[in-house]
Amino acid sequence: MSETTCEQCGKRPATVHVTDLAEGAPTEHLLCGECAGTTRTADVVGLRVVAPEPAALDLVAQVREAILGAANAKLRLAELAAGDIAQAAAIVAECLRGGRKVLLCGNGGSAAEAQHIAAELVGRFRLERPALPAIALTTNTSILTAIGNDYGFDDVFARQVGALGAPGDVLFAYSTSGTSKNVLRAIQAAKTAGMKTVGFTGQGGGSMAHQCDVCIQAPSNDTPTVQECHTAAGHTICRLVEEMLFS
In Å, how far from its chain's centre is CA 205? Predict the structure, then answer.
């Protein structure tokens, strides 16, 4: 979309249409708000806001559609997955109450979500309280590249679960498709270690649906929407865990 630039300063977007009588004959100018404000009042016959171009209106409609679509997905998540989210919160609270820890893994945006929720637990969510032990398995590039190089990318999380996981710990496993091989192997390693597993997937759950103790399925197959639902679910779990342990 092209944007009209102020005729006076040549820098800011033009938002005001000015009719100027300074030169005798009326002249039309497109100015920014700041430059329009410096125009002599006696010289100005009329001011009117420049209407948005049709392309801008299309973008506004797309923004509304995107945000409302994500909001509707979260409403369906509340209806369909509230029981699973509550069960996951209870599992995490029991784990942390027993002095155990939470491990988290995922790829791409899901890796960022793993780090995000680990930060909420180690730092705080809403309440002032002691730090809670949580480790994202997505952050140590030396470990990730060493395992990837020596064993293959499919083992980058499972190897870490084998090193750090213990009975009573919990694994948060993120995969929007539910089929990420390295996440599935991490789930198997967690089971071998005697850990509980909480999966975060898209609609249907993929292969993770029947391999996790709890599988929180976002009601969509659109990756960004699924990730936004995972954030909502993770925040809710953090909130409930804090309330169960510290309220």
Answer: 19
